[in-house]
Amino acid sequence: MAAPGARPAQTMIEFRDVHKYYGDYHALRGITATIRAGEFFSLLGPSGCGKTTLLRTIAGFEGISSGVVLIDGKDVAAVPANKRPTNMVFQSYAIFPHLTVEQNVGFGLRREGLSKEALAARVAEALEMVGLKGYGARAAHALSGGQRQRVALARALILKPKVLLLDEPLSALDKKMREQMQVELIRLQRQVGITFILVTHDQEEALVMSDRIAVMFEGEIAQLADPETLYRRPNSKKVADFIGTMNFLPASILSESDGQIEVEAKGFGRVTLAADQAPGAATGGEAMVGFRPETLTILFDGQQATDRETMATIEEVVYYGDMTYYDVKLDGMDSATRISMRNVFGRPVLDIGTRTRIAWSPGALVLFR
Amino acid sequence: MAQETRWGRFRRSEAASGYLLVSPTAAYAILLLAAPLAMIILYSVFRDGYLTVIPAFTFDNYVETWSSPIYRSVMIRSLSVSMAVTLVTVLLAYPVAYFVSFHVDPSRKSLWLFLITIPFWTSYLIRVFLWKVILGYNGVVNSALMSIGVIDEPLTWINYNIQAFVVTLAHAYAPFAILPIFVAMEKIDRSLLEAGQDLGESRLMTFWRVTLPLSMAGVVAAVLIVFIPVIGDYVTPNLIGGGKIPMIANMIENLMLVRDNKPLGSAIAVSAMLIVTVVSLIFVFLNRRFLGGTK
Q1: Cα–Cα distances in Å, from B172 out to A282, B119, B125, B132, B229?
Q2: A90/B194 Cβ within 8 A
Q3: CATH classification code of B68-292
Q4: Cβ contact (<8 Å) for B192 and A94?
Q5: Tens digits of residue pLDDT in B30-68
Q6: Nearest residue in chain B measured CA to CA from A96
Q7: Shortest CB distance from B293 goes to which of A92, A98, A159?
Q8: Which residue ranges run through the membrane (chain B) (predicted)?
């Protein structure tokens, strides 16, 4: 996250109405966005949404059909990949198999014409930064997946690019390694202060790592926001569905004035929402209110709701150890909604069929219309 | 329970069925390769008694092989022709393999490979003979050039010489060189080339620093595949050279069948084999070094 009081962020990359066609296929459909200098930016979306294509237009591996891409204020249309101030960590890592770790990391330094000693020192420094001190003489094929990734990182960062591009760098690692590398990437990004642009299809990874996230569907950016806004105030059902779990209830809009929206939501009754609780543009479709599973709480004996309260029947219980998921039917509803509860010592897991009180708050609702 | 015999156990083992499967091939190889080879080696240390072979041990044949200037110069000619052919073939094959691997649409690659193998539809002998027709004294090239008035009398430097051998053999062995280089190139991860450019190198430098070293294994294989058979080529010197510029195979044939000196012919054959083995081992060693990095 950006440090408080940081100077106003400059723009590092700007897309102006970028379109890309592969024959008849419209891969990028009018991308307009800016990426700030020094931020950790993620392109998140399902496979085939155009996120990798967009990343490759920055690297220079992919031309664009129309629009403008600016890197640090310069139109890069005529700049080939080898002349751009960007470096990439490839999905396959693209470690040169015929070279040692050292030679891989120092590959891009050839043109700087360093002395042998200066080159070795720069390489050693880069290897230390990614935690591979002493691995320099190893053959590339003798490395594990995690080590390959570190070599790819060192090889890119050693050139001190303005932008580091990461194409799904963690997808080939196992879960534990992936979580470790997430933390290390964040640390590294803070340390070097370079703009990082990450492509991922893993919403959790994007939420954990990014300052801002662009969610992409079918060649368009559906929403661009910081992780919290994206999670709490998704601007469409599609975004809400892609990031985490969201319950949807049918609703009807009664009135709208002065930034206040009166809604009649099934199961919740009549509620007043603030304007920011309807972040999406009107689509003309059926109105819905949505809420995250953890925003509803089962009230145990003696607990009081801080805001609103309603009754529900438990229909399904899924026990996860630290959490329990309950599918409950709110009174006045036909279908179940999901609630997640943190398991607290001494509190029982409720049985199917239990009648229970539920605490909820209108502030947690998001209106889609 | 009866004690199982070693033979009984062997008969049911996987190894036994393996031996059974290879036995026809093995028998064939022993009969047609190992046995004649053993005979040649045996002949090479026997004495020649004109028209007969005297089974008395001697190294004289090898002494003559390695000391006679005639045999040495023929061997050197064979080696240099083979090296020239290998060089020309691989240098011409590399760009073809590169083009097919990197610039041909993936769906068209098999068509291209198919086209490359077309020369094999004609027998080797006929292909060599066609070059004789093309390059000969009254051949296609000469009569064409004369009829359009470029030259007044037939060129002689295009036929009956070493250059003509190289042209003929390079054409005959081109597919053998293209295919291994193509295979090595196909195995190169294309993102490595993007990585090379991403790290600041031009296309040419990326080729030099990434593509070329990674395709070297294929080049070494191509060198081996062309070099070894060309050294022992018999047909080309006979047809294109008119029998006047013998290579080692023609020499051996002459000794064995014309002069009927089987022991000396055998000694030269064994010596040539040893030289080829040494050269091949050098290349195999090089190949292993290149492959070592790409496992």
Answers
A1: 72, 8, 10, 13, 11
A2: yes
A3: 1.10.3720.10
A4: yes
A5: 899 999 999 999 999 998 887 788 888 888 899 999 999
A6: B192
A7: A98
A8: 21-46, 74-99, 111-130, 162-185, 206-231, 264-286
